[in-house]
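Weekly sync notes, structure subgroup
Attendees: PM, AL, DS (notes)

Item 1: joint prediction request from the bench team. They want all two components modeled as one assembly rather than separately. Inputs as received:
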Amino acid sequence: THWLSCMACSSLGAFPALSPLPLARAHGKSFAHRSDLRQAKRILVKLGSAVVTRGDECGLALGRLASIVEQVAMLQNQGREMMIVTSGAVAFGKQRLRHEILLSQSVRQALHSGQNQLKDMSLPVLEARACAAAGQSGLMALYEAMFTQYSTCTAQILVTNLDFHDDQKRRNLNSTLHELLRMNIVPIINTNDAVVPPPEPNSDLQGVNVISIKDNDSLAARLAVEMRADLLIALSDVEGLYDSPPGSDDAKLLDTFYPGDQHSITYGTKSRVGIGGMEAKVKAALWALQGGTSVVIANGTHPKVTGHVITDIVEGKKVGTFFSEVKPAGPTVEQQTEMARSAGRTLASLEPEQRSEIICALADLLTERKDEILSANKKDMEPCANQTIFSPLNLSIGLRQIAVSSQDSVGRVLRRTRVANNLELEQITVPIGVLLVIFESRPDCLPQVSALAIASGNALLLKGGKEAANTNRILHELAQEALSIHGVKDAIQLVSTREEVEDLCRLEKMIDLIIPRGSSQLVRDIQRAAKGIPVLGHSEGICHVYVDHEASVDKAIKIIRDSKCDYPAACNAMETLLVHRELLRTPLFDQIIDMLRTEHVKIHAGPKFASYLTFSPSEVKSLRTEYGDLECCIEVVDSMTEAVDHIHKYGSSHTDVIVTENEDTAEQFLQQLDSACVFWNASSRFADGYRFGLGAEVGISTARIHARGPVGLDGLLTTKWVLRGEGHTAADFSEQGSMTYLHENLPVAQVLPGRRTTS
Amino acid sequence: THWLSCMACSSLGAFPALSPLPLARAHGKSFAHRSDLRQAKRILVKLGSAVVTRGDECGLALGRLASIVEQVAMLQNQGREMMIVTSGAVAFGKQRLRHEILLSQSVRQALHSGQNQLKDMSLPVLEARACAAAGQSGLMALYEAMFTQYSTCTAQILVTNLDFHDDQKRRNLNSTLHELLRMNIVPIINTNDAVVPPPEPNSDLQGVNVISIKDNDSLAARLAVEMRADLLIALSDVEGLYDSPPGSDDAKLLDTFYPGDQHSITYGTKSRVGIGGMEAKVKAALWALQGGTSVVIANGTHPKVTGHVITDIVEGKKVGTFFSEVKPAGPTVEQQTEMARSAGRTLASLEPEQRSEIICALADLLTERKDEILSANKKDMEPCANQTIFSPLNLSIGLRQIAVSSQDSVGRVLRRTRVANNLELEQITVPIGVLLVIFESRPDCLPQVSALAIASGNALLLKGGKEAANTNRILHELAQEALSIHGVKDAIQLVSTREEVEDLCRLEKMIDLIIPRGSSQLVRDIQRAAKGIPVLGHSEGICHVYVDHEASVDKAIKIIRDSKCDYPAACNAMETLLVHRELLRTPLFDQIIDMLRTEHVKIHAGPKFASYLTFSPSEVKSLRTEYGDLECCIEVVDSMTEAVDHIHKYGSSHTDVIVTENEDTAEQFLQQLDSACVFWNASSRFADGYRFGLGAEVGISTARIHARGPVGLDGLLTTKWVLRGEGHTAADFSEQGSMTYLHENLPVAQVLPGRRTTS
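Output from the run, pasted for the record:
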């Protein structure tokens, strides 16, 4: 029966398992980077008492526990070997013993004083070890019930730290755990509190002495090393390790902690859960790290992240503090951002000519070092040969145009007002600050965006794709070389390809504007991930061409063909063709259909159009579709006004076109339609910064604030207000004061005022 | 023992209860508004099988269940009477029976073919009623274990719909349930599936016939009415009731459903969980509503809201669809927004003079109807007598100024470009769209903001505080009366005080910009709540005055006094005084301290300042404090550059001042410091739209995009690009094309071009 039961248990545990991951990493040394954690096969999750209980009320945090169980079961079913070190028996037992005592007390008290006095009863202080003993069975039953829901078997292990000092016991424990893991069972380990010495009398949880948490920390670290775990995840109610006491002005959560940096940490003493308790946790973590196990300390009680804290860590996301022995050569992305901001401030204080010189220097470098760039590009392209050819020469020409337009971007006076005698106000253009540009494979984006940032005096973080890593690296080196001529090398930083876009979008307060350059999927993803940081970019381009009944045949055919077929994947390509009803059975309409057929455009019919036809093309699923291909929807409208209504309802306020010879109709359309770009007798494809003559294009914005439509350099600028007085106060202008407001508009000087270099 | 056990159970259930809410509503008719749901005493929560199971895998959704239990227990502990109708026994039993069958199968199979073939085993189809019977005990045990964590007792009730047809059974059930509620026990009710007829063979959950969900819906409705519940919350995996099949272009989730509107609903048929299954749910809901129980149908499976879906509903928040018999007189806030947008478009197309006329008409009305306004204001003020006096006269003067500045706001041409021959581009100012202004008590905000919206051609939703409801109502009537003179009455809407700010902030895609006017707490709350809608407003004003060693004594004293004491609660008041080190032991420094003492300003010392003193004032907790009172921090810096660094590190980029006689130092400070407002020898209190001469002030923005610092009318405008051609296409400019780009800047005409009225 031994063979039978083992086999059966094992099969039960494995039942809904996905095909196991190819995880075969040999244990020996810890992982160097968070992204390596995806390779972790054997993982020990330690749940501190703060995670398992609900804090003040001492019941178990059931929801939290359930989601932790769900994540552990999921990882187990991926083929990983999961172990849990849990707290919580004390809390569970306390709840239970309290009931028992209350029950007997209440009966006694009720006999004395009636039944309404129960609330005031003082609660007895319960002994932690007794609580633990009483709670252990219930806690395990709960874990088992929960894991059963995920078809995962569990096993209970009770140990004390002393067990590790006895070699025979250690060997026994080790072999038991290995046997359980082999059978796909999740061991749930707890300290055998009933046989440990009485706890020190610091009552943390109300009215209950707590088993010193140090025990569970060092127990988890010991077990992790003993079992050669790849990763120890220690969850408690702290976010991780800070560089100074949390709550102080400068405290920063450390994303990664290197043991060599230990002197840079200030341990506080006051807080219960702060850095005080942290010292023991860090000691245990360092001990595990030395033993070859990677460690992440994270908050398991944060309601927003608890549901995926463990899986996020295993996916390499920036949660809590990761302990690594291998310090990377370069700075962290946070340090890069700081460096960029600081150098960016110097860049902004340069003379416009100096910024122009930097851009020209970059243009020169692109042609001089062409061969180097092209060979790097070739290296990148080998895996996927059909990428676009990269032309440093064309890039260089574009850059020189940006250099020209950079002359009057920063420090331009937009408004001057004499507020009162000797009190003058100026509104001047200034850079936005630190930009984060995230771009997909095409590396020609890098020099362009760099030139735009330099021209507008902004600091820049660049995040490119892995596919163009070599090209991006050399292009970034050239940008820094150009910046060096005026000592602002660090203003442009290339972010490591290891960094997750999602993590970068969380650098609130460090980054002022995010600009995604790539597919609309990329834009949407980033808009979703960027909390609190503005994103400049269009998410959808559902552009319309409306052909009025007074349209010219030639213009209509030309414009529709160009709007749809010139580059169907572009955001400014036509998606819906609106046709005035009177055109329906005219030669113009047939010509349009013929042209679309010749161009192989697949036609979908809007509901109204379909109702006019005997045999109609497939009806559209939604009038809000962005096909991005040689496909379009045709719909019929009764009038220009109905066309406007249709576009307001189904469009994305990107670019919409009217084709008509009637100027009145056209002007009404242009006035009434609320889109970023409204065109009369011109292709929607003109909605583009270069075609608009804005010089370089930052992007196309469908937002309604800051910048709208094609965005040029101006979109990378904001303003500041400069007021120069002679000791003026608001009180001077009060009823008792001696001054009055003049608010006189002054002419805006052509020379940039008040600009000096900082050197 | 009967008395004893009842008493004990009751006391156990009540143990950690908060003091019960004063809920004493007599049942009889359902609630009219969501906000009334806070009064619901007896609540029945119905958990559909989609909520209790994990969907495809058929295990229980433990995390979800745990959070539902937590919410129910919390409400129970508030003194409400909670009941649960649950599904899930089938799923629980299936999981269990599968194990049993698998176990025996696996042994047999292993004997035949070795142990690696288990994965391919076909699973037997299990009979739903058997699953239910097998699962019932486990499910109840789980509920009990979970509720025990919240010190809440549960009881199991199994019923069938037939039980309701037998009067005696009904009476028995009724009295049992009442007895349980009286004892503070949560009854958990399920259908007695073992004795119901075999289910129809539609296998919804993989491989298991499901007990028709209709049973549980009508069971819950019956029970709710029978038990005179105030509220039935029916949770499943649909968001609620839509006005047309979900997923179609126009489908809108109904916030509130009135039985009279039933014809306006389109029921689809295809989807399992869509509107098809909805019909039965709606029928049950209407039945309960007729019986006097309010109903909310909501999604209990949405990971982001499950943790508070029940408590949110009971707090009156807009979750799912609320069934109400009392249709409110006015339109819903969604309808108001639509009306405002539509009328706003007409407002934007008026001539500037017409918008000006509307504002002047409003100004006239304010003086003409002064008495009416003041008497409404008096009514509002009675409860809290120390409110500010309201002056329609002053307001009226301010409005006339806005009327003047409105003349050249909308339709101003900012840029004209000849893109090519006969292809001309204009960038013109247009309104942003629909503004939502949320303001705290001061009702004088309403006419001001209305005038600003009219001047900029924007539609406006106004949300004021309850404290000024009467004044706001009359002021809004006057605004609409003024708007009527050009037929755009609906462009300004006053939102009912019933609407929660949080719900309004969710009206993404309907509202383009939110402007909070009030405390910085209000601004912060709204910035947090507004997902996807931009918010214009400052959240913090940590302003600095830096006194250089070359400062004039008189100017320094004057500016510091004004910056701190003129209005300490203002966001542009000084919070930190930075002093050059060389000043420390000079008479100027003593004079500053004397002045601050005379003005009763409490001084806190920065760490560096403290280190210079033998006896220092209390050291600051944080250098980032906004005191908003007669308090400030003093810190010492070694140089202007150090002052700039300090402000960059601890400031909020609002307004910062240098006091010096050295022009070079001043200009460097003005250039280097990256704040919205940088002043030289002038009080920080000048950072204000009116004082800057911007006419009316929309607010002060500390954002870095769109608008920065004091925002005037321009902050309520965006732009659009108008292109007029003669059939131009992008292809005309290609290498094979006949045209070339000119990109010639044209002078901007003073007359507004292309503007016609739509009438």
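Discussion: The domain at 543-697 of chain A is CATH 3.40.309.10 (Aldehyde Dehydrogenase; Chain A, domain 2).
Action: AL to compare against the crosslinking data before next sync.
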